[in-house]
Write a structure and sequence with these properties.
Elements (H helix, E strand, L loop, with lengths): L38 H4 L7 H9 L8 H6 L4 E7 L11 H11 L5 E7 L7 E6 L2 H5 L15 H7 L3 E6 L1 H10 L7 E6 L8 H11 L6 E6 L4 E6 L4 E5 L5 H4 L5 H4 L11 E4 L8 E5 L2 H8 L5 E4 L3 E2 L3 H12 L6 H14 L2 E2 H22 L4 H4 L2 H7 L7
Parallel strand pairs: 2-4, 4-5, 5-9
Antiparallel strand pairs: 1-10, 1-11, 2-3, 6-7, 7-8, 9-10, 12-13
Helix pairs in contact: 12-14, 14-16
Pfam family, one: FrhB_FdhB_C
Organism: Cyanobacterium aponinum 0216
Protein name: Coenzyme F420 hydrogenase/dehydrogenase beta subunit domain protein
Length: about 400
């Protein structure tokens, strides 16, 4: 028996079974396959190993003395971009979908791991291995619930595919990198999206009902750079709710424990990352981490408007003020929340500084969560870069 196929004797867990990561499981899908054989090494919430996997994926780990490396991970280049001709119905302008389609049509890959909606529920994710551009385009728009993307890994190995593109978020990609050499692939491309807070389907319903005026017609939403949550509705309208008006005291329990213990919002182990966190409003933020990522971006460069990243403002006081406010579940009256949102939008952090604001405010929150709920994991689970970021702030006990 070779090392490659030694995992095939393992048995996937049955639906609904208790997962090895217990309450911290992010439902990445690894345990739905015989790759559960490697879960103790691969799971991001059992064995945090970003620095080691960065070295394998990118040739080095991040430089903690470089602010951009510290926050955004190993990278060759960052830029803002949007498609010259957007894809209709895409979450933004369709850069991720376009890259995936080009890779498939140009023969660089035989399949693309992406996520459709289930037939029954617009927010229930259904991972697939897309082999046509139609299937790729059917996966456009983010799925804001925990998604078992890696549940298709057995199908990949059994299909005999040798060249594959996987689209996913940080916890999925960490597990994927840990088993990459067991998949029997000749070439793996990893296209990542940033991921901040995710929810179970029940948690999503509570968030929508607590926050939106019309929860049943929401088709997509994002926490945007203007400090508002943007809800896109079926009729094309966009509802905007200020961050500072969210009912924090009612929503503290909707986010998955895995997301409350995550320190990899920027998808450190992907070859190429496409999101919006570090871009001006209306643009997407692209991070090229290595030569494979550059190869992917080059396929679509002539279809993009691009511009350099910017960084303006100072996040630090806003982050420090937000720590006790979140901790105590403070919710402002809507008029005050709207006024604060307008002021911060005018004078607050922009571009990469907004991204740092988001990272700082979530890392401090998550550090406190781990310290209070999983103190035995604090030392091994919080990466060194996150420790350094959190140490800039005064935290409550």
């Amino acid at each position: 028996m070779t090392v490659i196929n030694s995992h095939r004797k393992a048995k996937a867990l049955k639906q609904g079974s208790r997962r090895p990561a217990k309450d911290l499981c992010s439902e990445c899908g690894l345990c739905d396959t015989y790759y559960i054989h490697y879960v103790k090494e691969a799971c991001a919430f059992i064995n945090q190993q970003i620095a080691e996997l960065e070295t394998i994926a990118h040739g080095r780990s991040r430089d903690l003395n470089s602010e951009n490396d510290l926050y955004f991970g190993v990278h060759q280049e960052m830029m803002s971009a949007k498609k010259i001709e957007p894809i209709e119905g895409a979450q933004w302008t369709g850069i991720v979908s376009t890259i995936a389609c080009e890779m498939l049509t140009q023969g660089l890959v035989e399949g693309v791991v992406c996520v459709h909606n289930s037939d029954e529920d617009r927010f229930q994710p259904k991972p697939i291995i897309a082999t046509t551009t139609e299937e790729i385009l059917g996966a456009k728009v983010n799925k804001p619930t925990l998604s078992p993307n890696l549940s298709v890994l057995e199908q990949i190995e059994q299909s005999g595919m040798k060249r594959l593109l996987v689209i996913g978020v940080g916890c999925q990609i960490q597990a994927l990198r840990a088993v990459e050499d067991k998949l029997g692939l000749e070439k793996l491309y990893v296209l990542g999206t940033p991921c901040v807070d995710n929810v179970t389907r029940a948690g999503l319903q509570k968030f929508l009902e607590t926050t939106s005026k019309s929860p049943d017609t929401v088709v997509a939403y994002e926490f945007m750079q203007d400090f508002r949550v943007h809800f896109k509705h079926e009729d094309g309208s966009v509802e905007k709710v200020p961050f500072f008006g969210l009912k924090t005291n009612q929503l503290k329990d909707v986010f998955a424990p895995s997301c409350m213990t995550c320190f990899d919002y920027v998808n450190s182990l992907a070859d190429l990352v496409v999101g919006y966190m570090g871009a001006p409003f209306g643009w997407q933020w692209i991070v090229v981490r290595n030569d494979i990522g550059r190869e992917m971006l080059d396929l679509v460069k002539n279809q993009l408007h691009t511009q350099p990243v910017i960084s303006r403002g100072d996040r630090t006081q806003a982050v420090q003020n937000s720590i006790p406010a979140y901790d105590q579940g403070v919710t402002l009256p809507m008029w005050a929340a709207k006024l604060m949102g307008v002021v911060i939008e005018k004078v607050g952090p922009k571009g990469l500084e907004y991204a740092r604001f988001s990272i700082d405010s979530h890392f401090t929150r998550n550090y406190l969560y781990v310290k209070r709920n999983y103190p035995e994991k604090l030392k091994d689970h919080v990466p060194e870069y996150a420790e350094k970021i959190v140490s800039q702030y005064k935290l409550p006990d």
